[in-house]
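Intended use. Records such as the Sugar ABC transporter substrate-binding protein entry shown here are meant for training and evaluating sequence-to-structure methods. They are not intended to support clinical decisions.
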Amino acid sequence: MREHVWTGRGALAVAAAGALVAATACSPGSAPSGGSGDLAGVELLVAAKWTGVEEDNFTEVLAGFEEETGATVTYESTGEDTGAYLGPKIEAGEPPDVAVLPQPGLLEEYASQDALVPLSGDAAAGLKENYTDYWQDLGSVGGDSYGVLLKAAHKSIIWYRPDAFDQAGVNPPDTWDDLTGTTASTLSDAGVTPFAMCGASGWTLTDWFENVYLSHAGPQKYDQLVNHEIPWTDDSVVQTLETLAEVWGEGDWMAGGTQGAVQTDFPTCVSQVYGQEQAAMVYEADFVAASAQEAGATVGETAQAFPFPAVGEKAPVVVGGDIAVAMSEAEGVQQLMAYLTSPEAQTTWAGLGGYLSANSQVEADAYPDEFTQELAQTILEAGDDVRYDLSDQVPSQFGATEGKGMWTVLQDFLRDPSDPDAAAEKLEQAAAKAE
């Protein structure tokens, strides 16, 4: 494993090429504290979207619960569209005992349908003990706690090629002004295209917006926008769009120009930086590591990353992730939820790689490399200022549907960012329609 280093004041050099994308050997921690009692003969079904290595690692975590309790836990993949999988099962009265949801919006939807069972006993106590108020509130509806953020994704990272930065004589920036006024402009002047954009994948554009908005407007305003307590025509939204236009409006700063930026999907944009070397930087989450490696980069050497620069007083920390909920009252379900909430279970998963936890009791040294340790630490250190992905909290027809809502409006704005007020009005209209 390569040693983690800091290059410049704000840059993260990514360590351990496979740590974010493949399992590594891990010695199990202490016996999980979540389970209790003898569940021999009890059979439970857990459903989540994970496949491949993620599925292997999660089933290894579940094996710890089976060992402790004697229960048998079967895993079933929902596929990428968790709602399409769960909808018919809920309708038929045959949901899985535990489901892992990719969006808080789904949690609210199912809670309103009485399709979820509130946490109780050790599960409720574990959530309160191991998670900050923000994460507790995220999984709650109407004062009842339903969800546990089981697996997090760090969405406040910009990846870059060190050789391109060296060629232009620039360092990773700390602030947005540094990014636009020095880093990107100097790269462009040196004949290096600053950014690969993943505009064909609309969710990446919502992530851009969320980072700029959180840093510029602050967490309280962010929450108000999520809940539509302020309109999308608010000055804070317009100013965020104006800030994005400082990059999106520079066609020469994007691989393939404006047209290429809108037509390039994720993860093709990653290969434009690593492999094709058409650009110096690409914005997206920690999972870029997998695509960079597939493109031939050596993560930690030729592929490095720095935190999303501060637009306002603080750099943003935006997190996505998957939320575990109980969908039945069968014997053993609350014990399993308690186990999933426990630091012991999540420490086991942390040691397997490709995982981040928002559990305050998971120690940094649980992770197999220093880069992941740094990412986990930034989530915990952000405290009450960390925020969950905005587009996944609003109604899915507005925030998470191809060809609709935020995705379409921001893609149009990427094509022509000359009128932020008009884009804000379109966002407000789409948000109102989705509600």
